[in-house]
Write a structure and sequence with these properties.
The complex is a heterodimer. Chain A has four helices and 13 strands. Chain A is an alpha+beta fold. Chain B has one domain: 4-Layer Sandwich (Glutamine Phosphoribosylpyrophosphate, subunit 1, domain 1). In chain B, helix 1 packs across helix 2 and helix 3 packs antiparallel against helix 4. The chains are: A alpha+beta, B alpha+beta. At the A-B interface, helix 3 and helix 4 of A face helix 3 and helix 4 of B. Chain A: InterPro entries: Ntn_hydrolases_N, Pept_T1A_subB, Proteasome_sua/b, Proteasome_suB-type.
Chain lengths: ~220, ~220
Amino acid sequence: MEKHYTESKVKGVSTGTTILAAIFDGGVVIGSDSRASIGGEYVSSKTINKVIQVHDQIFCCIAGSLADAQAVTKAAKSHLSFHSVQMESPPLVIAAASVLKELCYKNKEELQAGFITAGWDRKKGPQVYVVSLGGMLISQSVTIGGSGSTFIYGYVDAKYKPDMTREECQQFATNALALAMGRDNVSGGVVHLVVITEKGVEHVVVPGDKLPRFHDE
Amino acid sequence: MLGEAEPQWLSEEVKTGTTIIAIEFNGGVVLGSDSRVSAGESVVNRVMNKLSPLHDKIYCALSGSAADAQTIAEVVNYQLDVHSMEIGEDPKVRSAATLVRNISYKYKEEMSAHLIVAGWDRKDGGQVFATLKGLLTRQPFAVGGSGSSYVYGFVDAEYRKGMSKEESQQFVVNTLALAMNRDGSSGGVAYLVTIDKHGTEEKVILGNDLPTFFDQ
């Protein structure tokens, strides 16, 4: 089928990736695959974790150039921890997303990275924000990104329901990532999930042999 | 307005953009397509039926360049008529798919069309063949066109072997609706063709009757 060049114009190591975040009743699940590749031809890492913690209950996922994404998240992390000291309270999820947005927008010519930010705060509960390549910031209840995401738009539209339980949402996220990894050659490896609720944060790793299988596998 | 650019449909190639799908069920096949034809960013036909008959019980679904796809379908329709007269009975689905594949492969540099061929014959029942870029492969189901990328995950997850005719029709309609929602080059109405040993049934599902999803 037609090859999609969404990520392959990125120089150097790209995350050519699938990332996802979804809100459920009482929290949010954020997840990604674990493959890093160079030009779509060589897998430079099979087990990279693309879900990065920027504060206690706020995580973000990166897509695009790995170098740009690491630099931006590093800057965002220090920005946020200073902000939280000044405010004397944990930062809001939208504050984290805005910090990323500012960096992406002000440096839009040089950077090639997009982010999904998900977390829980006391003001608005579970939230998901998307910062796209040029620096747009929007809030959504479910969102996907990266090169593998094109293949699962239909699945996510059909299967996502607001107010799912935690188990349903975890299964939904695992299925969606597994489907994308099955069709996108630059996504693969294991599924990293982080489940964030008022009570705290839980990491789940689903290794390759435990991934759901579909009709042709 | 001063200095208005000429409309795109005067200069851009006409493509069927599109989402097409064909699936085999126990006893026949269901084919489905959207109805949008675009030239650049203009929609030049919003009700085009991209499911084209090659013979009584063999249809093909068109995608890619509209002109190339239509021409291949017309040429193969003629070739199949001659072939079926020569053998004195209805042609096999594999024969139709082979004729399509021969043209796609011979002219693969000049043409850019992908046809999915599906139908029913007495020997092997319902069959679906993909002919992308000159290959010929039989599959339980096939999707194609620009909108198909968005629904690979959905069809991988939802397809089950041995679905009934009604389940297959619903599967096709759901897939088309999801693709039409996400792909700018697919839209309009959904056309369905169901072929089994009893005959061929054509159906249109209008925009407002298509399934909707959580964000609509």
